[in-house]
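Duplicate of earlier report; DUF2171 domain-containing protein input re-posted below.
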Amino acid sequence: MAVTGIKENMEVIGADGVHVGTVDHVDGARIKLTKKDSGEGSHRGHHHYISTSLVAEVEGNKVRLSANSDVAVMFEEEKSEK
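Output:
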């Protein structure tokens, strides 16, 4: 799936149509999500990333993933501190 159509502020949704996050930008082979979608607790206030390999299609202003939202969030990564 070509990710060239993915733009800032697009909604990322799971295959089940449930909101996963909002695109901050594409960072290599990952979609960086905005901090406002960073979750709760220790995850709050951190950018999270979804692999572009999970993208099924880009339609309108939505990025639809090939996995349901509850599975997709399990694949979220935080920025590595290297």
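The first helix runs from residue 69 to 72.

Merging into the original ticket.
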